[in-house]
Amino acid sequence: MPQRILIQNGTLITFGAPCRVLEGHALLLEDGLIRRIAPPGELTGPFDQVIDARGKVVMPGLVNGHMHFYSTLVRGLGKAEPSATFQEVLDHLWWRLDRKLTLEDVEMSARIILLDAIRKGTTTLVDHHASPFAVTGSLDAIARAVKDSGLRACLCYEVSDRDGEAIVTEGLEENASFIRRCRAEGDPQLRALFGLHAAFTLSDRTLDRAAVMGRDLGAGFHVHVAEASSDVAVNRARHGLTPVARLHAHGLLGAGSIAAHAVHATREDMDLLAASGTFVAHNPQSNLNNAVGIADVLNLVERGVPVGLGTDAMTVNMLEEVRVALWAQHLRQENPTCAFMAIADTLFVRNPELATRLWGQPLGTLREGSAADVILLDYHAPTPLRDDTVLGHLIFGLAQATVDTTICGGRILMEGRRLLIDVDEARLASRSRELAAALWDRF
Ligand SMILES: [Zn+2]
Question: How many whole angstroms from 260 Cα to the centroid of ligand 1?
Answer without folding.
Answer: 7
